[in-house]
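Recap from last week: sequence in, structure out.
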Amino acid sequence: MESIFRKDLFKNHTALITGGGSGIGFRTAKELASLGAHVILASRNTKKLHEACEEIKNNAGEASYIPLNIRDEASIKECFSFIKNNFDKLNFLINNAGGQFPSPAEKITSKGWNAVIETNLTGSFMMCCESFQSFFKENGGKIVNVLANFWNGFPMMSHTGAARAGVENLTKTLATEWGRYGVSINSVAPGIINSSGLDTYDPKFKSIVNSAGKFNQTSRLGTEAEVANTIIFLLGPVANYITGETIKVDGGESLFHPLYPPIEHSNSRPDLY
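Predicted structure tokens:
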């Protein structure tokens, strides 16, 4: 893998990536490993974790994995105990894991609502707190939370829109509370990304998502690499003076205005990485 960053940028660094077995999380892990970091992949799908870990190792990267359910506090504590016992340090946490399902708001049950809130908001909160107590309070560190494009509301995804908006505010709050300990925390908000995560949706909804490029200024979907490299920018030393911020990686979709709507074109190239 070729990267826009210096090859040894993260040598002797350790990074934990939730949802690291596929999609944006896996792409971020591969990028970090190619830059010298030891990446720890965590999610509920052990098979995907193992396959992702082996791919990174086969490309001369350093990787480990641990099963993790971010809705389960005991599972989170076990994850950080694993890191302490095997590496004794953690430099970066990427809160990428999440889950949701498309539905009109009035059809979402309390069970469905709570499941998404617990995963996307409560899970991110508990991961942040455990990383702080276990590593960052004493040694500093960096956290990047992965959000979504909820800036104009999130039709058909009201549960995850509410949860991700909560994480965006949490990012600012924790950046304020933990800055004195040398902790920086930022967020990345992807728009519609051409990712393996799209395969989890039914074909009808997936076709709608795949046509969403016409609503942004690039006239295409984003790539996993574009999100991953934004995350890596925030983890790197060039972003040491940035905290409590959110970078939108959405092709300008959040700027949509009916008086000057996007037009189709082929001038924005996704093949830079």
